[in-house]
Design goal:
Blueprint: E1 2-3, E2 6-10, E3 17-22, E4 30-37, E5 43-49, E6 57-62, E7 68-75, E8 78-83, E9 89-94, E10 99-106, E11 111-120, E12 127-133, E13 139-144, E14 148-152, E15 159-164, E16 170-177, E17 183-189, H1 195-200, E18 207-211
Antiparallel strand pairs: 1-2, 2-3, 4-5, 5-6, 6-7, 8-9, 9-10, 10-11, 12-13, 13-14, 14-15, 16-17, 17-18
Amino acid sequence: VAVQNGFGRYDTKSGVLEMLATVEHENSSIRFNDGKCDPAGRFWAGTMAQDGTPDAGSLYCLDYDLIVTKKLGGIGISNGIGWSPKADKMYYIDSRSQKVVEYSYDLASGAISSPRTVVEIEVKEGTPDGMCVDAEGMLWVALWDGGKVIRINPKNGERLSEVMVPKVQKVTSCAFGGKDLSTLFITTARVDLSPDEERRQPDAGSLFSVVVGVRGLPANVFELRRCVL
């Protein structure tokens, strides 16, 4: 798990959190946000400033030996991350940029290069938040304040489809699951809703699921066997 000041391992049976690596932030309001493992078993996670300090976040990678490397700086709100089926591309969202960016990815080293904007979301449509990749290599992007998840072709930015979440404005992330990975699970939030908005969005903050007609990729896990614990 990514916690405020670094990376940890949480034992679901005992409830014990063991810190694996600590990251020193530039100010006390910075905390970790979204994270995900790459196909080689590294754990990537980024940060954001809760006090609104602009571009104070970073993107980090926890490697097999528990050494943390800073991969990107000047991030507003580090959010969705994913990899192509061939693991030669990494997709990343800094929510404040309103963009989904593609990087060339070296699976052997974890190096990223050659950033390219896949798509830029207009503010009126919502803010890109969490993201996942399906088996066809298409991106599923949750839109905060947009009430939906959109499917995007990363090659040309084309919108292929969308899933509207009923009576929910703040859609936060998505992931494939189920026996054959054909169910899209969608998380939402109810934070900062006015009393009137809460009445109109009674299911805000709920977990939703929908069968979308395509399959996702199996989740990657951290490569503990190579770690020095």
